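Q: Sequence in, structure out?
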Amino acid sequence: MSKEVLYSEHDGIGVVTINRPQARNALNWAAQEQFSDIVNDISDNLGPRALIITGAGEKAFASGGDLKELAGKDSKKTARRLLATMGLALNTLTQLPIPVIGSVNGDAIGGGCEILTACDLRISKPLVQFRFAQIQVALTTGWGGTARLVRLIHLSRAMELLLTGRPFSTEEAYRIGFIHRVVGAKTVVLDEAIMMAAELIALPSGALAAAKKLAWDSTNMGLNQAYLREREGFIDLWPEKDHLEAMAAFNEKRPPRFGKPG
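A: Exactly. Output:
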């Protein structure tokens, strides 16, 4: 079977690579299913302590569904299939108890931008183009991208990008908070993403998982419920080994030695 999506893992860091550079990393059926299988396997087995998502080559991160493969397939059954696999996979990404980093190696168009909305952190090389282009083919987002985008950059900015489908630059993406970090022109963005992941996995895994869950869950809660959930999580973490180690390290004036998950 061809490898439309690759997965590797080293030193606790998993890397998912959309591997169709000849098609600007558009996700055909095979790529969608392989992407979903990888994400579901990580969810079930939790091998890595951080996950990076990127694209092969230098031109594209991802371009969403493969329009050439979809040409002529105009039934609602096709639409449901297109939405189900990736929609569920991206929702699973937001629920993984590990940080997920989008490493933007090239243009992110349509569904490629939707994938990025499901990442916890997003890092990009300069001079790439982002575009929620679904409106240009008479569609809306379908993989959960609108709801997540509104929560990431707020309604007004999200509305303009979704209704116009216009391209926006790395600089604008950073300015509006869609991208967290832009690397230098000569820096390999995946290398920088791996460094970011290494910094994250050095932190206490239980607190990372709790902070991620609290942040994502808070987007669907009222303030009072979010406050209550935050207090409960804080209390649960207080007697845990990593917190006790952090306090001991502070008092002893040494770096903390956090335990590994499991």
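The chain has a mean pLDDT of 93.
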